[in-house]
Design a protein that fits this description.
The protein is an alpha/beta fold and about 260 residues long. It has eleven helices and eight strands.
C-alpha cells in the first residue's frame, strides 16, 4: 500500500527553510490536516537557530486557492478550531521570526492564499498569477491577518475595494499596488526565488532580524518610541561579531562573512 500524501512539505536546505503546500489536486486548499502541518512546520522553524530565510510555495498549478470549501459545507462549526486556529498560530510564528519570509507565488493566490502572501516579508510572483480576496464570495469576512496586512501595504480605500468587490488582480496590478515585490517569467520563478533567498542568507542575520522587527512594529508606535527602538536595535547589532566583521570588510574592500553572532 502506498504511503499517504503529506498535505505540506517542510524541509531545511542549509540555512533556507522551505514550506510547500502539497494538495495540488484542490489547488492547495487548506483543510484541517494542512493547517496542523503548517502550524507544526512553523513551530519547528521557530525553534531552529540555523534558519536564516523561510520560503513558502505551492505544489502544482497554484500557490493556494483558499480554504477547503468542502469542509466549509460539511462542518462549518469546525472551521475556527480546526483551520483558523492552527493557521493563525503558524502565521504569528512566521511574522515574529527574526528572519525574512518569502512568498513564491504562481497560479491562483486567493482567499487564505492571498492572506498568507500578504503576511510574508517579501513576495515574488510568476507572470500570469491571479490574485483574489475571495472571502466575500463565500459570505465570509477574512482570516490570516488580511485585514491587518492589506491596508498597511496599499492603503485603506484600496484595501476595501479589493476586499468588498473581490475583483481579480493580475501581476501588473499586484506589482503596482505593492502586493508583490517582483514579477518574473513562470520558468524563472524557482530560480529567482532561490537567488533572492541566497542573497538574504548571505546577509547579516542579526541586522536583518532587527530590521524586520523594527519595520513591523513601527506602525504601532509613535516616532519617539520608534527612535528609541532603533537606538536599541543598532546598539544590539554593534555589539555583535558580525558588525565588526562588516566594518572590517568594508574598509578592506572585501565581502563580509556573517556568522549570525
Amino acid at each position: 500500500m502506498s504511503e499517504p500524501t503529506l498535505p505540506l512539505l517542510h524541509e531545511r536546505d542549509g540555512a533556507i527553510a522551505r514550506i510547500r503546500f502539497n494538495r495540488p489536486q484542490v489547488l492547495n486548499a487548506i483543510d484541517a490536516a494542512m493547517a496542523c502541518a503548517f502550524r507544526d512546520a512553523c513551530r519547528a522553524i521557530a525553534n531552529d537557530p540555523e534558519v536564516r530565510v523561510v520560503v513558502l510555495s505551492g505544489e502544482g498549478r497554484a500557490f493556494m486557492a483558499g480554504g477547503d470549501v468542502a469542509q466549509f459545507r460539511d462542518d462549518p462549526a469546525s472551521i475556527a478550531p480546526s483551520l483558523i486556529d492552527p493557521m493563525h498560530e503558524g502565521l504569528r510564528l512566521l511574522t515574529e521570526l527574526r528572519v525574512p519570509v518569502i512568498a513564491s507565488l504562481h497560479g491562483a493566490v486567493a482567499g487564505a492564499g492571498l492572506s498568507l502572501a500578504l503576511a510574508c516579508d517579501l513576495a515574488i510572483a510568476a507572470e500570469g498569477t491571479r490574485f483574489n480576496f475571495a472571502y466575500t464570495k463565500l459570505g465570509a469576512s477574512c482570516d490570516l491577518g488580511a485585514s491587518w496586512s492589506l491596508p498597511r501595504l496599499i492603503g485603506l480605500r484600496r484595501a476595501l475595494e479589493i476586499a468588498l468587490l473581490c475583483d481579480t488582480l493580475d501581476t501588473a496590478d499586484a506589482h503596482r499596488l505593492g502586493v508583490v515585490n517582483r514579477v518574473v517569467p513562470p520558468a524563472a520563478l524557482a530560480e529567482e526565488t532561490e537567488r533572492l533567498a541566497a542573497r538574504l542568507v548571505s546577509g547579516p542575520p542579526v541586522a536583518n532580524g532587527w530590521l524586520k522587527r523594527l519595520m513591523r512594529e513601527s506602525l504601532s508606535r509613535d516616532l519617539g518610541a520608534q527612535l528609541d527602538a532603533e537606538r536599541h536595535g543598532f546598539a544590539a547589532c554593534a555589539a555583535t561579531r558580525d558588525f565588526g566583521e562588516a566594518v572590517a570588510a568594508f574598509l578592506e574592500k572585501r565581502p563580509a562573512n556573517y556568522l549570525g553572532s
